[in-house]
Amino acid sequence: MRTVLTVVAGVLALLCIGGVATALVWYNRASTPDRSTPDVAVINYLQATLVAREPERAKLFTCDGAVPSVDEFAADVAGREQELGVSFSINIEDVVVTETVSSDATVIAVIRRGATIDGVHQSLADTWQFDLKDRDGWRVCAGARIS
């Protein structure tokens, strides 16, 4: 009887250890930001900054924690929303990697914001250029509106 209990206890201990290890691997994969390619890093950065409005999450996709021009754009959008009493929908479109050299890349993206104001749907689109560096995954270092 003692041997059976020892074997059962050993099997249960192994199952628990295996379950904890599996949970840690899944958690790590789920919580690690996807910076696998320059275009994916830009999309995730813009989603965190402009759509979800999570500055702490956005920092996971940047070189130095902030991209001032994009932060100013986000503040401008928030100000216009408050001024007009509407909520803008933000779409990131036409994301294209235009240049990749070693650990540097350039990405062009269109940021479209739209809202219904006085019953009329209105939309504005701006083209942006982002400079990225590969630092343990691609990170946005600079951004500028180009049109």
What is the gist of this entry?
This protein has 147 residues and is of the alpha+beta class. It contains 4 helices and 4 strands; from the N terminus they run ααααββββ.
What features would you describe in this structure?
The termini are far apart. The model has no long low-confidence stretch (mean pLDDT 91). Helices cover 44% and strands 34% of the residues. The chain has a four-stranded antiparallel β-sheet with strand order 1-2-3-4, covered by helices on one side. With 147 residues, the protein is α+β, with helices and mostly antiparallel strands. A hairpin with a 2-residue loop joins strand 2 (104-117) and strand 3 (120-134).
Largest sheet: 4 strands, antiparallel
What is the general shape? elongated
Number of strands: 4
Estimated structural class:
alpha+beta
List the helices and strands in order: HHHHEEEE
What are the low-pLDDT stretches, counting only 5+ consecutive residues below 50? Answer: none
Number of H/I helices: 4
Q: What is the rounded distance between the termini?
A: 79 Å
- Order of strands in the sheet with most strands: 1-2-3-4
- Tell me the helix content: 40-55%
- β-strand amount: 25-35%
| Rg | 22 Å
Average residue-wise pLDDT: 91
